DNA sequence: GGGGCTGGTTCCACATCGTAGAACAAGGGC
DNA sequence: GCCCTTGTTCTACGATGTGGAACCAGCCCC
């Protein structure tokens, strides 16, 4: 929290973060004066920072008692971060095992408004064409990850069907009915397969990761060049993925 | 997150919070350019905010990949807030019941370097001399709250004995040996009593709240004027407090 | 009930410091 | 190797953040 340690520091921002830090650290609502005394900053300045932080919902101003405490925005960001962080940590060892077993890329993704977002990825050392990167997005309906999650959504399929279905490759499913039938299959089988529907020459096997309520918070997939994945190997991989996903889901408190 | 909604807004702070918001919301590390495109702010500006947020440890700059993600300071603040928030929520109904049963003030406090800090407090409607307020601190050794927590510390008593013991009233225990013996008693009985040791004419009964590891994360107490608390009533209250604390501890995952 | 005090809000004039365009450097992919 | 994308540095301008001081509003205490 020192002001030094590099140039390009914007002082108002730095000082406001000190205020945020102090308030959150206390664990109880604090007053303007308390903060001023602790931080040794001019009263007016701290006042404005508290106002700004409150306007952004990072803090909350209790008008009645005239005290400042942690705000809703801060809490919601913290929750999102913590959940994803926890998911990554739990999934990591399972992903590593899968990658080492099959020597193919293993992906972890979440759903975000009709698209999958890759939040983690493990690649075998050997050179290969990477189809995606962490942070990238693909349409949900063209990936095994997306289909795996859609199948376990409370209003299964409604998500994908609500939008039109962009055609990524010649193989991409663009017919809502066909997609719906596939998603029904996925729900029965417990895994999704996609062959060249998202990227020519690439295939994916995807499985959902469920939380304690059975909601598909994420999905994990193995992606490989089509030619390397013979049917028998695909079955073996699908079983391995299902096992790994079940163990992760159990860690998250899922019953089944 | 709108810039309007009141005067006294410091714009650099507001905009930097937008950056923090965006990064944390993504769930994966992001680049400078991604952030710029999303927020429609000048590149230089976003660059400096990212630098500043990183310097304050609210974000973390992964030099290798040149990406920004949530930082350690943010995570630690979030954890502190979440734990205390959860504690308050769980304790609240028990505290209310106790207050309504005995018509006396009920306190919730945590330990912070040889002092207790009140993090919540429920008072009966009738006028009474309030001995403390939320956020206030008292020496641990002069309060039932402090003694209750000390008794269940891994290195019981070491905390209090490491510092000298300020004399708050004529009754305050300032002898380390005497205090240690009392704390041993507390561990056996499961509750602590203090009569006029912190405030003349006021007595307190305190019980520890333990987490899953058995660590005393907080303590709860009933505080009342001495004259109102006859010995029999004190015993009844102590039992009620022990029961309430046990239920709260169980909620936190404690076994016993 | 008045007076003084503490804690919060508003005002204002100054110059600091944040701003953003543009130029530069570095890296990565084709 | 070359281009293009992405991150970093520079600089001159003036908007805007700053903080002292004045102003209020409760509240406690005589």
Keywords, separated by commas or semicolons:
homodimer, 256 residues, alpha+beta, 6-stranded antiparallel β-sheet, two-stranded antiparallel ribbon, 8 strands, elongated, disordered N terminus, DNA-binding
Summarize this entry quickly:
Chain A has 256 residues and is of the alpha+beta class. Chain A contains 8 helices and 8 strands, in the order H-H-H-E-E-H-E-E-E-H-H-H-E-E-E-H.
Write structural notes for this entry.
- The structure is a homodimer of 256-residue chains.
- With 256 residues, the first copy, chain A, is an alpha+beta fold.
- Chain A is 45% helix and 20% strand.
- The first copy, chain A, is built from 8 helices and 8 strands.
- The first copy, chain A, has a 6-stranded antiparallel sheet with strand order 5-4-3-8-7-6, with helices on both faces. The first copy, chain A, has a two-stranded antiparallel sheet with strand order 1-2.
- The longest helix of chain A is centred in the middle third of the chain and has 31 residues, at 72-102.
- Chain A is elongated.
- The first copy, chain A, starts with 10 loop residues before the first helix and ends in a 5-residue tail after the last helix.
- Mean pLDDT of chain A is 87; it is low at 1-5.
- At the A-B interface, helix 1, helix 3, helix 4 and strand 4 of A face helix 1, helix 3, helix 4 and strand 4 of B.
- The first copy, chain A, binds a DNA duplex (30 and 30 nucleotides) through residues 7-8, 10-12, 31-33, 41-45, 47-48, 66.
